[in-house]
């Protein structure tokens, strides 16, 4: 390789590492410092995993990939530790993305069930499941490694250093558990979300507004029936373009999320799966280095796709930045408790639409816009006389 190619490659690896360090740290700090954003447990956990990968894996990957460090020698124990961290953090990151996708599925398609079942205990159990599964997968990679005081160069410290039939079995299991199954889950989940987006864009049913709310309270049954009938028949021509644009934004965001996952991890697992099943093919070398750093780029991209696309996180980040610079706040950003569980603008749009599509009733909301529509689900309207149970 020429010196220019070597310098360019080294610069790209350093830039990716710095981006992963800064972006994951910023998103994690914003979530931890804001009590109303602490429901993003899995997003915060993804930032923690990617930050650990940026601290340990990516610098070691620079040493293994750059010819400037050809003289670096690893012992067997050091190489085993590197392989352990590599597989463990990769597995934890991908499994966390899968759980985030499932969480969004329930948040959008079954919002009421999500509000009831999504608890801190369930989130902690999900994090424990991720790490237990990642460690178990990593232990399989270390089976059959040579013992003794041998050593190898940094560029050869890969899972292929210890050849054997068990390595092929491990790579097949690793590819199935950490890529094929998560890919199936992500496609199934976001396909359901896509269908909700399409149905939401085609939904032309009226939604009551605050202007349609009654100005005077009435206790008569005739007034209640009149209010409900008027609310259901209100024309709403301005919301149709809004829903259409919101649906297109949702679809574009979903395509970007799924495409980013495939672009980062498909070359990595395809290379290792082909190397494990193809006769006479041995992994390592320049090809493995390229696909490894394409996969490592996911650690720098994830905080943008799963963190900074969030409107609440961006607003809180802007407020913290202004506070650090001691600038006066032009507008104080106040997030209500109900807004704390909203993940992204398009998720809020889909969640509102899916409530109507799933239950044919309105969502439980504190906004005046939805108070009249809550009468369909048994919520009293202003001035309603409570019925006595028989």
UniProtKB/TrEMBL annotation:
InterPro entries: GPCR_Rhodpsn, GPCR_Rhodpsn_7TM
Start and end residues of each G-protein coupled receptors family 1 profile domain: 23-306
Gene Ontology MF: a single term: G protein-coupled receptor activity
Key words, A-Z: Cell membrane, G-protein coupled receptor, Membrane, Receptor, Transducer, Transmembrane, Transmembrane helix
Listed transmembrane segments: 6-31, 40-63, 83-102, 122-145, 169-190, 250-270, 290-309
Membrane topology: Multi-pass membrane protein
Subcellular location: Cell membrane
Location of the region described as Disordered in the Swiss-Prot/TrEMBL record: 368-390
One annotated Gene Ontology cellular component of this protein: plasma membrane
Pfam families: 7tm_1
Entry superkingdom: Eukaryota
Chief place where the protein resides: membrane
Protein family per UniProt: Belongs to the G-protein coupled receptor 1 family.
Stored PANTHER family: G PROTEIN-COUPLED RECEPTOR, G-PROTEIN COUPLED RECEPTOR 62
Protein name: GPRX protein
Gene: Gprx
């Amino acid at each position: 390789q020429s010196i220019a190619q070597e310098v360019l490659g080294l610069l790209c690896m350093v830039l990716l590492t710095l981006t992963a360090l800064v972006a994951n740290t910023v998103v994690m700090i914003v979530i931890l410092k804001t009590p109303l954003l602490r429901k993003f447990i899995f997003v915060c956990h993804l930032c923690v995993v990617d930050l650990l990968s940026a601290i340990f894996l990516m610098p070691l990957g620079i040493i293994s990939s750059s010819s400037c460090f050809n003289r670096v020698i690893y012992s067997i124990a050091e190489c085993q530790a590197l392989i352990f961290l590599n597989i463990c953090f990769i597995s934890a990151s991908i499994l966390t993305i899968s759980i985030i996708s499932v969480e969004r599925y329930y948040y959008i398609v079954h919002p009421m069930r999500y509000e009831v079942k999504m608890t801190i205990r369930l989130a902690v159990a999900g994090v424990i499941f991720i790490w237990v599964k990642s460690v178990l997968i990593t232990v399989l990679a270390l089976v059959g490694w040579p013992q003794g005081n041998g050593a190898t160069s940094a560029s050869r410290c890969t899972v292929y250093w210890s050849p054997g039939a068990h390595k092929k079995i491990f790579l097949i299991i690793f590819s199935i558990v950490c890529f094929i199954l998560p890919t199936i889950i992500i496609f199934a989940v976001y396909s359901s979300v896509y269908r909700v987006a399409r149905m939401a864009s085609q939904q032309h049913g009226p939604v009551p507004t605050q202007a349609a709310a009654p100005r005077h309270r009435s206790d008569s049954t005739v007034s209640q029936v009149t209010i409900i009938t008027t609310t259901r028949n209100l024309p709403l021509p301005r919301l149709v373009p809004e829903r259409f644009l919101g649906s297109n934004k949702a679809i574009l965001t979903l395509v970007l999320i799924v495409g980013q996952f495939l672009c980062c991890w498909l070359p990595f697992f395809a290379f290792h799966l082909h190397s494990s099943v193809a006769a006479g093919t041995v992994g390592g070398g320049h090809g493995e280095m390229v696909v490894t750093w394409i996969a490592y780029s996911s650690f720098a991209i994830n905080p943008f796709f799963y963190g900074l696309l969030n409107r609440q996180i961006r607003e809180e980040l802007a407020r913290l930045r202004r506070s650090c610079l001691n600038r006066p706040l032009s507008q104080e950003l106040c997030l209500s408790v109900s807004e704390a569980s909203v993940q992204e603008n398009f998720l809020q749009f889909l969640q509102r639409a899916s409530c109507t599509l799933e239950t044919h009733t309105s969502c439980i909301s504190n906004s005046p816009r939805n108070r009249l529509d809550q009468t369909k689900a048994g919520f009293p309207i202003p001035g309603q006389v409570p019925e006595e149970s028989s």
